[in-house]
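Changelog entry: the DUF3127 domain-containing protein record was regenerated in this release. Current contents:
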Amino acid sequence: MRFPIDAGRLAFTVTAPPNAAKDFTTKKAKVTDDGQPIMVVTLLAMDGADSAKIKFNLPGEQSHLVPGLPVRVEGLCFNTAKEGEVRWWSAAAVTGVHASAAANAAPSRPASMAGEGAAGGTRRTPHASAPSASASSASARHGGSPMATGGESTS
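Regenerated C-alpha cells:
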C-alpha cells in the first residue's frame, strides 16, 4: 500500500552524501534496467515542531545532494507490504532549493536574537551593568518584573 505525503508542508535537508544501494543477497551495487546506479538518499524531514530521518532509493547519480543542502522532494510516499511488516519511503525526485528560496522559507529570528532590541537599541550582554533600552522596554511589557529581563532590582 502507498501513502502519498504532502511534502509541501515539510522542510528537508540532506544529512549524508548519497551512496550506492546494495542488493541484499549479492551485496553488489544495484542498477536500473538501463544501467543507471541506484543511490540511497538520506534526508531530515522537518515540520517545524518535530523531525525524522528518512532514507529512500533514487535512480541515477545524485552527486548534487550534499550534506546540509535544503531540498524539495517530489512524489514522496510511505509504503507498506506484508500487512505492515515491511515499510519503506519512496520519492520521484529530490532537487536542491535555491538559497533565496531557502532564506524566504526559513523562520525569521526575533529582534532580541538578531542583535537589536525593539526600539533599535543594542542587545544586552550578560556582563552589562545597566539594562539597555530594549531590556527596559521588555521589563515594562512583562509587568515591570526585573526577573523577566534579568535586570537588577533597585528597591
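Residues 133-141 form the longest helix (9 residues).
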